[in-house]
Amino acid sequence: MKLNIAYPATGCQKLLKIDDEKILSMFYDKRISQEVPADRLGDEWKGYVLRISGGNDLQGFCMMQGVLTNTRVRLLFKKGMPNFTEKRNGLRKRKSVRGCIVDSQLSVLDLVVVRKGEQEIPGLTDTTAPRRLGPKRVGKIRKLFNLSKEDDVRQYVVHRPLPEKDGKKPRSKAPKIQRLVTPARIQRKRKVLALKKHRSEKNKLAAAEYAKLLAQRQREKRQALLSRRRSSNRTSTSSA
């Protein structure tokens, strides 16, 4: 079985291939999100605590949280469930997933370092993998650089350098900032609100005119009915 161990503090991962059942037995019958001490992996892992985050079996089916079994099952998936993307409205699909309990039929087990031990693990805790992409949203850029509302966020976007070509100037790439409040955005919002207000006033006037016309038609209908009754009464009295 392969153990894919991630350390979020440095952004690094380490893949260990272990065939010793004595070492792997400490993960058996454990569920996703349970924590396991990693002392059996070696002396350098003393003091480390790992959390089980998922895995795949020998045929490539992934583990799913909440399925309390160590075998593969077929579930009916719908919108909002994990491991499923709705292609059409109301679509449901039956898929095979593995339960959230670890057993010997897994090929890869995903683990996350929750607590670091005394010694450094080469390639996992002693190096740092920088983030390839910076934040894109305005609030997250402000949070990263501790900016205020008055600072220009566009000056703090993280540019990613592109590979250089022969005889050309070095180029970089930056994301389009999302949720950025610009004068054009304010003007567009003001226009939308004005259109909405104009539409509501127009609907109110149309409703008032319709009510007025309806009242007039009912009044005319009532008068016509009264006139017919009067004429019928006159003809009856004249014939008598």
Overview of this structure, please?
This protein is α+β, with helices and mostly antiparallel strands and 240 residues long. Helices cover 29% and strands 21% of the residues. The protein has helices at 21-24, 138-145, 183-239, and strands spanning 2-7, 12-17, 35-37, 49-57, 72-77, 93-98, 106-115, 160-161, 172-173. Strand 1 and strand 2 form a beta hairpin. It is elongated, with a radius of gyration of 36 Å.
Strands in their spatial order, largest beta sheet: 2-1-7-4-3
Would you count the extended β strands for me?
A: 9
For the CA atoms, what is the radius of gyration? 36 Å
Main beta-sheet annotation: 5 strands, mixed
End-to-end C-alpha gap: 113 Å
Structural class: alpha+beta
Mean pLDDT: 92
Strand content: 15-25%
> How would you describe the oligomerization state of the chains in this entry?
single chain
Enumerate how many helices there are, as a single number.
3
Quick overview:
The protein has 240 residues and is of the alpha+beta class.
Topology:
Layout: E1 2-7, E2 12-17, H1 21-24, E3 35-37, E4 49-57, E5 72-77, E6 93-98, E7 106-115, H2 138-145, E8 160-161, E9 172-173, H3 183-239
Descriptive key words:
alpha+beta, two-stranded antiparallel sheet, 29% helix, 3 helices
